[in-house]
Design brief:
By secondary structure, this protein is of the alpha+beta class. Helix content is about 40%, strand content about 25%. The strands form two sheets. Strands 1, 2, 3, 4, 5, 6, 7 and 12 form an eight-stranded mixed beta sheet that branches. A four-stranded antiparallel beta sheet has the order 9-10-8-11. Helix 3 packs across helix 4 and helix 4 runs antiparallel to helix 5.
C-alpha cells in the first residue's frame, strides 16, 4: 500500500502571468505558498486486473480507457500503469471550486503515488512538469502552471516562468518569517463553489489585451518577495489590494457585486488587502490582516466559515510505502 500527500496552496500575487500565452513572450512571476491542507491518495495492488477508483463516487472498470475520472485516467497513462490497482483520493476541503489549487494538487498526489507504486522516486520538478502535461496538454484545461509547482515543491516561493523554463525561488529560509506571515493571512469560505473553466477561458482569451495588467501583476510578485525578505510584511497587504483591483479586470467572472461588497466589508473591518482565491467567482476569500485588527474582521465576517491554516514547508510526500512479500 502507498499513501501520498500533496499540499494545497494560496496564491498571493501574480496569478495569470503563469499562463503559457503570457510567459512565452515575457517573464511571469507568482508569489505563493503551500498550506497545511492536503489532497491524499491511497493506492494498493488488487488481486485481479481490474481498476477501482474511489472519490465522491466509485468506479470499477476493466480498462484504463473506461475511467471517467480524467485525472486518474491520464495519470495512469503517463506512468504506464494499465491494470490491477485500487486507489482513493481524499481532500481536506471541497475538492472543486475552492481556489486553492485542488485539481493540480490531485494530479501531483496521483502521479507521486503511481510512480512510487512502480518503484520510481520522481523529483519535485518531474512531478510538477508531469502534472502540467496531464492537465494542459492531455486534457486541454485553460489553466496556468503555478499550482503544480506550488504543490510539488511546497514552501513559500517566488515562482518565475519564462519560455520553457520555470524557476522556483524560496522567499526565505527563516521559519519566523513564514510563521509571522501565516499569522496575518486568513481564509474565509464564501459559500460559493464554482467551475473555474469559464472564467479561465475568458481570461486566457483576454491575455493579449490585458498584457500590461499582467506585466504589473508579475512585477507585484517580485516586489512583494523583496519586501518580505526585508521583513516588511505589511507591504504585502497593500500589494494584494492593488493586485485584486487588477485581477478583477482580467475576466468578467472574476468577481461580482456580492463578492465586491464582501471584500469592501473586510477592508472596512481591518483587512489591508486580499482577493478571491484562484480564478475568482467564489471559493475562498484570502485576506491580509494584522493581528490587532483580526477580532474586528472575524466579527464582521462571522457568517462565513473560516478555514484555519498554516504555511507548509513540505511539498508532495510519500507518507507510507508498504511492500508485501
Amino acid at each position: 500500500m502507498i499513501i501520498t500527500q500533496a499540499p494545497l496552496r494560496i496564491s498571493l500575487l501574480g496569478g495569470g502571468s503563469d499562463f503559457p500565452a503570457f510567459f512565452a513572450a515575457e517573464e511571469g512571476c507568482v508569489l505563493s505558498s503551500a498550506i497545511d491542507k492536503y489532497i491524499s491518495v491511497v493506492l494498493k495492488r488488487r488481486f485481479d486486473a481490474r481498476i477501482r477508483v474511489g472519490y465522491t463516487r466509485t468506479e470499477l472498470v476493466d480498462d484504463v480507457a473506461m475511467l471517467e475520472h480524467d485525472l486518474v485516467r491520464e495519470a495512469m497513462r503517463i506512468t504506464g500503469i494499465r491494470a490491477g490497482v485500487e486507489l482513493a483520493t481524499l481532500a481536506d476541503i471541497p475538492s472543486r471550486g475552492s481556489g486553492l489549487g485542488s485539481s493540480s494538487t490531485v494530479s501531483v498526489a496521483l502521479l507521486h503515488a503511481m510512480w512510487s507504486h512502480l518503484g520510481v522516486l520522481p523529483s519535485r520538478r518531474r512531478l510538477a512538469e508531469a502534472a502540467c502535461a496531464l492537465e494542459i496538454e492531455r486534457l486541454g484545461r485553460p489553466i496556468g502552471v503555478q499550482d503544480q509547482y506550488a504543490s510539488a515543491y511546497g514552501g513559500l516561493n517566488l515562482i518565475c516562468f519564462s519560455g520553457d523554463a520555470v524557476r522556483v525561488e524560496p522567499v526565505s529560509d527563516d521559519e519566523r518569517l513564514a510563521r509571522r506571515l501565516g499569522e496575518r493571512l486568513l481564509l474565509f469560505f464564501t459559500g460559493v463553489t464554482r467551475a473555474s473553466a469559464s472564467v479561465l477561458n475568458e481570461q486566457q482569451a483576454n491575455i493579449e489585451a490585458r498584457r500590461p495588467l499582467l506585466r504589473r501583476m508579475a512585477a507585484q510578485a517580485r516586489e512583494a518577495c523583496a519586501a518580505l525578505r526585508a521583513g516588511e510584511l505589511d507591504a504585502l497587504g497593500e500589494l494584494m489590494h492593488e493586485g485584486w483591483q487588477l485581477k478583477r479586470q482580467l475576466a468578467s467572472g472574476v468577481s461580482n457585486p456580492e463578492l465586491d461588497a464582501l471584500y469592501a466589508r473586510a477592508r472596512a473591518a481591518g483587512a489591508a488587502g486580499g482577493k478571491i482565491a484562484g480564478a475568482g467567482g467564489g471559493g475562498f476569500l484570502l485576506l491580509y490582516c494584522t493581528p490587532e485588527r483580526q477580532a474586528d474582521l472575524r466579527a464582521e465576517l462571522s457568517a462565513l466559515s473560516e478555514l484555519e491554516f498554516a504555511l507548509e514547508r513540505e511539498g508532495a510526500t510519500v507518507l507510507l510505502h508498504q511492500r508485501r512479500g
